[in-house]
Design goal:
With about 250 residues, this protein is of the alpha/beta class. It has one domain. The protein is built from twelve helices and eight strands. Strand 1 and strand 2 form a beta hairpin. Helix 2 crosses helix 3 and helix 11 packs antiparallel against helix 12. The chain is globular, with a radius of gyration of 17 Å. It starts with a strand and ends with a helix. This is WecB/TagA/CpsF family glycosyltransferase. InterPro entries: WecG_TagA_CpsF (IPR004629). Keywords: Glycosyltransferase, Transferase.
Length: about 250
């Protein structure tokens, strides 16, 4: 496993480019090496500070990748320099291209019924020869039932988009029961893949301002998470760093 480095109470990877991680993903798939992949942004970091179970779940991830400018700056305070933003919305399409080329099938779990169906259709159109083994929305009565459906599909890769911390906890508690080799917590990826929600313009993404674009679209939901959440994140990271030195 690629070495993890400490950022406060969490331990994350420091892959520098999407290409670097994509190469490792392909290598692990070819070696039939199981893995759980999660993404860490400042919102997830804040949740982990209030939820010790979630903190442990994130630290049990095989790979925990940086998502957003907040984590990039917070990691720098801990001596970790990150080059690219490895958010799932940009990285997952790269991994899906590899799945299509290598005939690795994918199962989509999460979001509302219409959204996950639309996401499956759009992804099939964009990634030639991608085999989607099955889909299910994020609303189900029992883990056992949905796990049986996922396993029966024969999928190699499972994408779980149920939001933090539900998606990571679902993967973590069912790791040994899930047949897909790779389990990825994808957050709001299905919303963007289905084109239900628009992505920020490329310039804003290059400038790490996608959070600002999303806040403009959903100010009531995103204001507290982004403005207050960013402040809480940096205060906590600085305090943890100071505490580690004293």
């Amino acid at each position: 496993m690629h070495e993890k480095k400490q950022v406060g109470t969490l331990y994350m990877n420091d892959f520098q480019t999407k290409r670097e991680f994509a190469a490792l993903f392909s290598q692990n798939m070819n070696r039939h090496q199981p893995m759980n992949l999660y993404f860490l942004n400042d919102h997830g970091f804040n949740i982990a500070q209030k939820d010790p179970e979630y903190n442990e779940v994130l630290n049990r991830a095989d790979y925990l990748l940086n998502d957003g400018i907040g984590i990039k700056l917070g990691a720098k305070l801990w001596g970790i320099r990150l080059r690219e933003n490895l958010n799932g919305t940009d990285l997952i399409p790269v991994l899906l291209d590899q799945c299509a080329r290598n005939h690795w099938s994918v199962y989509l779990l999460g979001a509302a019924p219409k959204v996950v169906r639309a996401a499956a259709q759009k992804l099939s159109e964009k990634h030639t020869h991608l085999h989607i083994a099955g889909i299910h929305d994020g609303y189900f009565d029992s883990d056992e039932q949905i796990i049986a459906e996922i396993n029966q599909s024969g999928a190699d890769v499972l994408l779980v988009g149920m939001g933090m911390p539900l998606q990571e906890k679902f993967i973590d508690r069912n790791t040994h029961a899930l047949a897909p080799l790779v389990r990825i917590a994808v957050g709001g990826f299905f919303d963007f893949a289905s084109e239900t929600k628009p992505r920020a313009p490329k310039l804003m993404r290059r400038l790490n301002l996608e959070w600002l674009f999303r806040m403009a679209l959903e100010p009531q939901r995103m204001w507290k998470r982004n403005v207050v959440g960013h402040a809480q994140f940096f205060a906590k990271v600085l305090w943890l760093k100071w505490s580690s030195r004293h």
